[in-house]
Amino acid sequence: MNIGIFDSGIGGLSVLHHALKIIPHANFIYYADRKNVPYGEKSVFEIQTFIDEIMNFFISKKVDALVIACNTASSVATKEYRDKFPFPIIGMEPAVKKAVETYTEKQQRILVAATPITIQGNKLRQLLNRVDKYHQADLIALPKLVHFAELKQFDSLEVEEYIKTALNQYCAVDYSAIVLGCTHFNYFKPSFQRIFSKKTQFIDGNEGTIKQLLRKAPLIESYSQSVQFYFSGIPATTKELNEIKTYLSRLEEVYYL
Questions:
Q1: pLDDT digits over 128-175, tens only?
Q2: CATH class of this structure's domain 2-92+206-256
Q3: For the chain, N or C: smaller number of CB within 10 Å?
Q4: Which of 182, 213, 244, 251 is catalytic?
Q5: Where is the signal peptide (predicted)?
């Protein structure tokens, strides 16, 4: 089975990382659109143009299913849009439903961190209207974290100062959970943990997305597991493959935080 996974950059590696643990026998094709990252600061029209090009790439690779491992891209790729293509397409959304179901008491606050397009988009607003009955969730856009992640700048003082400054109007100890509504944000769990209460839980959409993949595209097992990496359609170089190893090692470090 050939499974495509794409993101604006290396954030979607957190989805791939989870998929590799859950699906041991599949061929994965990972596409990082590095020449156009970050998506969260582009227009909807620009992002849809990028997605069209990426879809054509995956058609040429004869994938059996595709995961849009990017909350921003998923927020502009509507169901009607996805239905145009000849394979199941699984999008992502911030795991607000899971967070609300876990923290149902009214006083338990949830912080949803994402990119500006996701925060401002109708898809997230509709989701909140549907599941956040007690208005537990607050929203915050943290676009610079995407830049920090792409630079492999995970634990610097600059990162923590950026998060602290962005959170000036929030009381960190009030939050029981942080919804990581951008796949790039998984790399920064240690920084969030130092700022928020030790009891604050991280919730992302990776597990739910892979479960949805398995529902929509029942697994046809390959003989082994393999991964191919592409950067904006070009096979990853040796240097880029070494970078990817660094990112995957980081994800393994923070996986259980």
A1: 999 999 899 999 999 999 999 999 999 999 999 999 999 999 988 889
A2: alpha beta
A3: C
A4: 182
A5: none
